[in-house]
Amino acid sequence: QATATDQLVGFGLVAFSLVLFVYYTVWIIVLPFMDSDHGIHQFFLPREYAVIIPVAAGLLLLLFIGVFIMSVMWKSRKHTKKSD
Amino acid sequence: MTKLAQWLCGLALLGSAWAALALAPPGLQPPAPLRQALLPLPVYLLVAFGCYSLATVGYRLATFNDCEEAAAEL
């Protein structure tokens, strides 16, 4: 049995990604087939954001990964210099 | 043929199919709603794949049984 926090975080991730997937699917695939005066459109941003937001988020993710790798390499280099 | 080559061929096939539909001249374009759903499709597939991997990581995290004996060893 996994620990309680593990289960909480794990199922939380599952729920979050499910919500994200459903929202994004409706946004990209379902909305173009709904009439423009249907009430559902008020819950969704203009369509351009459906592309801009994931691209920006992906770039941010790459930025964080790069910064993390840089910081880890920096710290390891300082430790080897100290041992000399 | 290596697995990488297979994946690249599949990607190239899907990519060219998408490009053919998306860049079609005005006479041959698919109907408007279909076209509106088609254009962001690569981004959509990337996001869908990201969601699937996040969900898989989360589910495996939640269902991985603790090994108390191994933890005691450490």
UniProtKB/TrEMBL annotation, chain A:
Its domain of life reads Eukaryota
A GO CC term attached to the entry? dolichol-phosphate-mannose synthase complex
Quick one: which pathway?
Protein modification; protein glycosylation
Keyword Zinc-finger in record: no
Could you list this entry's UniProt keywords, alphabetically sorted.
Endoplasmic reticulum, Membrane, Transmembrane, Transmembrane helix
Q: Where are the transmembrane segments?
A: 7-29, 49-74
GO terms assigned for molecular function: enzyme activator activity
Subcellular localization: Endoplasmic reticulum membrane
Signal peptide positions are none
Record membrane topology: Multi-pass membrane protein
Give the family from UniProt. Answer: Belongs to the DPM2 family.
| Assembly | Component of the dolichol-phosphate mannose (DPM) synthase complex composed of DPM1, DPM2 and DPM3; in the complex interacts directly with DPM3. Component of the glycosylphosphatidylinositol-N-acetylglucosaminyltransferase (GPI-GnT) complex composed at least by PIGA, PIGC, PIGH, PIGP, PIGQ, PIGY and DPM2. Interacts with PIGA, PIGC and PIGQ.
The protein, known as: Dolichol phosphate-mannose biosynthesis regulatory protein
Gene that codes for this? Answer: DPM2
TrEMBL record, chain B:
Pathway the protein acts in: Protein modification; protein glycosylation
For this protein, the parts annotated as crossing the membrane are: 43-62
UniProt main location, coarse? endoplasmic reticulum
Q: What keywords are assigned to this protein?
A: Endoplasmic reticulum, Membrane, Signal, Transmembrane, Transmembrane helix
Q: Which domain of life is it from?
A: Eukaryota
Query: How is the protein disposed in the membrane?
Result: Multi-pass membrane protein
Q: Which residues are the signal sequence here?
A: 1-19
Under the cellular component aspect of Gene Ontology, which terms does the record hold? dolichol-phosphate-mannose synthase complex; endoplasmic reticulum membrane
Cellular compartment(s): Endoplasmic reticulum membrane
Gene Ontology terms for molecular function = enzyme activator activity
> Which Pfam families does the annotation name?
DPM3
- Which GO biological process entries does UniProt record here? dolichol phosphate mannose biosynthetic process; GPI anchor biosynthetic process
To which protein family does this belong?
Belongs to the DPM3 family.
Known function: Stabilizer subunit of the dolichol-phosphate mannose (DPM) synthase complex; tethers catalytic subunit to the ER.
UniProt subunit comment: Component of the dolichol-phosphate mannose (DPM) synthase complex.
Put simply, this protein is called: Dolichol-phosphate mannosyltransferase subunit 3
Give the species this sequence originates from: Serinus canaria
